[in-house]
Design a protein that fits this description.
2 strands, 9% strand, two-stranded parallel sheet, alpha+beta
């Protein structure tokens, strides 16, 4: 959350693994908020790891968004919480999908 990273040009390949934008916008703005236009724009942190002039043009920076998962859900918490309490806190995506995606994406990115 440091402003010193705004417009910072990463020197190495980078992957940002986002939670579901719609869930975050609904939490921030309420369930009645129209989030369609918001989700099509940059996310909160997009300009924290790229130079402003070239943002979105580098092929070695990857943005991945997992639907039906909250920010807190992109942890190992889904292994320890059951439904129905789990859904509003962590998201409704299946646990094996959440855990498998994190493992596969991170290992695949580092291996590449």
């Amino acid at each position: 959350f440091s402003p010193s990273t705004l417009g910072y040009e990463m020197k190495q390949p980078f992957m940002m693994f986002y939670s579901d934008h719609d869930i975050m916008y609904q939490m921030l703005l309420g369930n009645d908020a129209d989030t369609e236009d918001l989700a099509n724009n940059h996310w909160l942190y997009d300009l924290h790891y790229e130079d402003f002039e070239t943002a979105g043009l580098r092929t070695d920076i990857h943005r991945i968004e997992m639907s039906q998962v909250t920010h807190t859900g992109l942890t190992d918490y889904p292994l320890f919480m059951r439904r129905p309490l789990r859904n509003p806190i962590l998201g409704s995506a299946p646990t094996d999908l959440i855990m498998g995606s994190q493992i596969d994406l991170i290992v695949g990115f580092v291996d590449t």
